[in-house]
Automatic annotation (TrEMBL):
<dbReference type="GO" id="GO:0050661">
    <property type="term" value="F:NADP binding"/>
</dbReference>
<dbReference type="GO" id="GO:0009231">
    <property type="term" value="P:riboflavin biosynthetic process"/>
</dbReference>
<dbReference type="Pfam" id="PF01872">
    <property type="entry name" value="RibD_C"/>
</dbReference>
<dbReference type="InterPro" id="IPR006401">
    <property type="entry name" value="Rib_reduct_arc"/>
</dbReference>
<dbReference type="InterPro" id="IPR002734">
    <property type="entry name" value="RibDG_C"/>
</dbReference>
<keyword id="KW-0521">NADP</keyword>
<feature type="domain" description="Bacterial bifunctional deaminase-reductase C-terminal">
    <location>
        <begin position="3"/>
        <end position="219"/>
    </location>
</feature>
<comment type="subunit">
    <text>Homodimer.</text>
</comment>
<dbReference type="GO" id="GO:0008703">
    <property type="term" value="F:5-amino-6-(5-phosphoribosylamino)uracil reductase activity"/>
</dbReference>
<comment type="similarity">
    <text>Belongs to the HTP reductase family.</text>
</comment>
<dbReference type="InterPro" id="IPR011549">
    <property type="entry name" value="RibD_C"/>
</dbReference>
<comment type="pathway">
    <text>Cofactor biosynthesis; riboflavin biosynthesis.</text>
</comment>
<keyword id="KW-0560">Oxidoreductase</keyword>
<keyword id="KW-0686">Riboflavin biosynthesis</keyword>
<dbReference type="InterPro" id="IPR024072">
    <property type="entry name" value="DHFR-like_dom_sf"/>
</dbReference>
<protein>
    <recommendedName>
        <fullName>2,5-diamino-6-(ribosylamino)-4(3H)-pyrimidinone 5'-phosphate reductase</fullName>
        <ecNumber>1.1.1.302</ecNumber>
    </recommendedName>
</protein>
<dbReference type="InterPro" id="IPR050765">
    <property type="entry name" value="Riboflavin_Biosynth_HTPR"/>
</dbReference>
Length: 234
């Protein structure tokens, strides 16, 4: 069994999620950031790759006091569990994700992660070991389902999202297309990594929603299920 996995990202009109220097940029407007806060508050956990932690230093906390209050009134932590996918335990111990806001933190590492760095992270987070050299995302998902995570939001970046698509672990993709052009052949895109070669490998999507928000558009896609998929229902 694995959680229901939905990816949420913001890209420019030319399909970039940040600059070629991997500098965080505001692509969403105020209404879209509200939407993101709402879906975050509804999730059991939120995941990013170590590249995003090192580039953006996000806290991934719920921003609205009302939504935090609603979570605690329902017996949940103020924030969803925050998860970093980090094979070599490179997450700085003072990263915002580990120090800001209440709630569980999980760092997923591989067996190759240096023991001293893993021990330092254990002071601030639960550490899950999945995979030998890099994090085995399918094994990680099983472990997350085992600790009660049913709805998992993925914020990025492009390398992690690619890894999840490659492993057939994405159920839904929500792409906000903002009204800017970033450009740059080396600027990150929603799914980077090696890319698929054969058309038969491409994950197939079903368009489930189109909504105008701020000066852009939100596209919601369902990913067609593969045979034997063991995702929990969304
Ligand atoms: N506009 C938007 O919505 C968003 C934009 N961003 C942007 O994205 C950029 C960061 O993206 P990126 O550099 O691709 O980094 P990611 O956040 O995607 O992290 C990628 C890293 O995750 C680790 N990882 C471990 N196991 C796996 C696996 N099985 N599959 C894939 N990755 C794995 C790898 O590092 P290791 O091997 O060391 O573990 C890998 O390099 C930043 O510029 C940020 O601003 C990020 C989020 C949202
Ligand atoms: N939805 C969305 N729109 C944008 O324009 C963005 N730049 C991002 N970035 C993501 O949000 C994270 C920041 O989170 P905190 O505010 O620190 O909680 C950042 O790391 C990206 O994942 N998202």
């Amino acid at each position: 069994m694995r959680p229901y996995v939905f990816v949420n990202l913001a890209m420019s009109a030319d399909g970039k999620i940040s600059t070629r220097e991997r500098r965080q940029v505001k692509i969403s407007g105020p209404e879209d950031f509200e939407r993101v806060d709402l879906i975050k508050a509804d999730a059991d956990a939120i995941m990013v790759g170590i590249g995003t932690v090192l580039a953006d230093n996000p806290s991934l906390t719920v921003k609205s006091s009302r939504r935090k209050g609603e979570r605690t009134a329902a017996g949940r932590e103020e924030n969803p569990a925050r998860i970093v996918v980090d094979s070599m335990a490179r997450t700085p111990v003072d990263a915002d994700i580990l120090v800001k806001g209440a709630g569980k933190r999980i760092v997923a590492v591989s067996a190759a992660a240096p023991a001293d760095r893993v021990d330092a992270l254990r002071e601030r987070a639960e550490v899950i070991v999945a995979g030998e050299q890099t994090v085995d995302l399918a094994a990680l998902m099983e472990a997350l389902a085992g600790i009660g995570i049913r709805r998992l939001m993925v914020e990025g970046g492009g390398t992690l999202i690619w890894g999840l698509f490659k492993a057939g672990l994405v159920d839904e993709l929500r792409t906000y297309v903002g009204s800017v052009v970033i450009g740059g052949s080396g600027a990150p895109t929603p799914a980077d990594g090696d890319g698929f070669l054969a058309e038969g490998e491409f994950p197939r999507l079903i368009l489930a929603g189109v909504e105008r928000i701020d000066d852009g558009v939100l596209l919601t896609w369902q990913v067609k299920k593969e045979e034997g998929d063991r995702s929990l229902r969304g």
